[in-house]
Amino acid sequence: MKKPLKRKKTCRALVFVACLVLGLYGSLAPASAQLVKSVDAVGITVSDIDRAVEFFSKVLSFEKVSEVEVAGSEYERLQGVFGARMRIARMRLGEEFIDLTEYLTPRGRPIPVDSRSNDQWFQHIAIVVSDMDKAYQQLRAHKVQHTSTGPQRIPDWNKAAAGIKAFYFKDPDGHNLELIYFPSGKGNPKWQQANGSLFMGIDHTAIAVSDTARSLDFYRDVLGMKLAGESENYGTEQEHLNHVFGSRVRISGLKAPSGFGIEFLDYLTPRDGRPMPHDTRANDLWHWQTAIRVGRADAAADKLKSARVRFVSPGVTTIPHRALGTAKGFIVRDPDGHGLQLIER
User: Fold this and answer.
1) CATH architecture, domain 113-269
2) Which DSSP symbol is given to 311?
């Protein structure tokens, strides 16, 4: 009886070694299929689209690509807002896009004036600059509202982010935005090629999350995005960047095969950030929706329903107006209530 037992142990050892070589041990189950093809754009609900377009174009060098006005039952179902009539302007900076949406009817609620960066409705886009000092002076010249006390440099002890400079500020509606500067060796290599541009493009959109593990379950395991990097930021620079005293933030960056990234901001301290209001609607000004391209919208909707994801749209909607290049789509909310619009082109 001893010899078969020895052979059995030997076989187990060989399987273990093989799994280590292949990088499979502990994850022998097949990986989740990649649902996301690209992170295409970020949508922001604004109160006055003309003012918003002027701000993004004159202050931050975005270019308006298109503008449409839409209404009808398809858009009501898509956005989950009865009687919706919207003006939508698509803006481009470098290779990235944002969509500004004003609800002519019905009007939504403003962003709470006491919002902080650790509240769960917090979201921003990180606008890459080639020179932080010049970009900051551009914002000062236009009297832009600060969130940060001023541009902050991530200290050298933080190996993952050392030398990166960042600054938080607000648009006319109070949406948080970020300027970010990447020194040599940090970030996407394309950010080292300014080609004379001060404002270069969008690196990522960041969202406040209450539980990194739970958010990874959704973005990585359900949607199929890849975890690209992690860091833990704290200290006076972080406190003055996000204007939250005592902040210690676990940061996780996720990537799709193309498009910009999605970054989690999990405030380990302080833990007093408020949850997303459960009655949030797409016409409320704190609503953002990240546009994620999938292969087939119907198949994506079936998968998300099986995962018990909360839907804003009652189902997949065919979009009659093709100005923004979307054939079908639907909106869901992530575990913390952030809006995602899954689109088929």
Assistant:
1) Roll (3.10)
2) E
Beta bridge partners of 207: 123, 264
Q: Where are the domains of the chain?
A: 113-269
Residue 82 near residue 330, CB atoms below 8 Å: no
Residue pLDDT, tens place only, 237-266: 999 999 999 999 999 999 999 999 999 999
With CA atoms as reference, report the closest residue to 168 among 126, 205, 135: 126
The H-or-E segment that residue 157 falls in is none
Residue burial 132-160, b: 16+ Cβ < 10 Å; e: rest: beebbebbeeeebeebbeebbbbeeebee
Sign of CA pseudo-dihedral 251, 303, 26, 39:
negative
- The 10s digit of each residue's pLDDT in 194-244 is 889 999 999 999 999 999 999 999 999 999 999 999 999 999 999 999 999
| Pairing outcome for strands 199-209 and 261-269 | parallel
Distance, CA of 208 to CA of 159 (rounded, Å): 22
Which three-class secondary structure state does DSSP give residue 185?
A: coil
Instruction: For residue 338, give Cα distances in angstroms to 16, 110, 190.
Output: 41, 16, 28
Query: Considering only CA atoms, which of 163, 152, 170 is closest in space to residue 111?
Result: 170
Give the pLDDT confidence of 290-319 residue by residue, as tens digits.
Answer: 999 999 999 999 999 999 999 999 999 999
